Amino acid sequence: MRVSEFDFDLPEELIALRPAVPRSASRLLHVGDGISDKHFTDIVDLLTPGDCLVVNDTKVIPAQLTGVRPARAQGGGGAVTLDVNLHKILPGTEHNARWAAFVRPAKRLKPGDVVQFGTKGEGGFSAQVEARDGAEIIFAFNCAGAEFDTKLKTHGHPPLPPYIARKRDVDDRDSQDYQTVYATEEGSVAAPTAGLHFTPEILSALKAKGVTQASVTLHVGAGTFLPVSVENTDDHKMHSEWGEISEETAAALTKVKQAGGRIVAVGTTAMRLLESAASPDGVIEPFKDETAIFITPGYNFRAVDRLITNFHLPKSTLFMLVSAFAGQQKMQAAYAHAIANQYRFYSYGDASLLELEK
């Protein structure tokens, strides 16, 4: 399909730079047989007993760092300050954590360079450049395990999406705002943002209504923000992310389906993991692996019946996914309605509840 089929004009003022306060005060667009305007608290009325809410319990790590490459002794110029965004953990050693990172300006680094984070000898840490591919750098850090985690929490910051980071600096509010209330498993460098609207009160109300809840884990990578640079979707290479569905959770979700209940994915990350784990006949299997599933119109959904998600970028893989799920023409109409009615877009924006187009 042509990527241009997923384009639309979005006024810049509709890009949310802060979440609604409280987080449940966001709006909700229900897209099913028709399109209706709701508030997110209405999700309790819109879900029904027997539905199962599947959340992604990944936790965002402080993956944004500022580092310094010291002046080179020969022919390398002076010291360089670098913006570093860790985006994928790699196999490491007992003493050296390894990460792939997007770096600006990456062209000022070469294999063998050492980048210092914080003050050397005063709680700081460093990483050596192993390789560079465009803006991506492979780093080997001088520590690992609990020591690395502690230093990252000391010197790192929440990795805000680029369309927010370009307009304002990260601050203390983001440490809480950019985290779901059920986040437990550290490893993401971007939040599963559909879950940001939920509060303990909403989750309790859903449970009391007979809506069950299950947790899966997909560690979201910064690749989720990368633009689609090809003209045809067949030529796009999807980023991979690590996910896990336990045997217990897989069995519980399969029972929900067999009993006639509906699987409600909270976010495209939960959706992609569930669809990666589902067999052709809809049985959700245990899963512990990387997934690079790329969902476009024409895909046959196996696991998910309803999707809660935010509003996505034009020509993005996520807008392609929601178009595949709810219908391409319907989603173009829904987004046109959302823009006309001043819905807030992207990570800190409003939400939608989408019904699977049969």
Indicate the mean pLDDT.
94
Instruction: Tell me the radius of gyration.
Output: 21 Å
**Major beta-sheet overview:** 9 strands, mixed
**Helical residues, percent:** 10-25%
Number of strands: 17
Q: Strand order of the main beta sheet, please?
A: 2-1-17-16-14-3-12-13-15
Strand content: 25-35%
Q: What is the string of SSEs from the N terminus onward?
A: EEHEEEEEEEEHHHEHEEHEHEEHHE
Give the terminus-to-terminus CA distance. Answer: 21 Å
Shape: globular
User: Structural class of the helix and strand makeup?
Assistant: alpha/beta
Tally of separate helices: 9
Low-confidence stretches: none
Q: What can you tell me about this protein's structure?
A:
Strand 6 and strand 7 form a beta hairpin. The chain has helices spanning 43-46, 145-155, 162-165, 172-177, 200-209, 247-258, 268-277, 317-326, 328-340; strands spanning 27-31, 35-39, 52-56, 58-60, 64-69, 80-90, 98-104, 114-117, 125-133, 136-141, 185-188, 212-218, 241-245, 263-266, 287-291, 306-310, 351-355. With 358 residues, it is α/β, with parallel strands linked by helices. The mean pLDDT is 94. The chain is built from 9 helices and 17 strands.
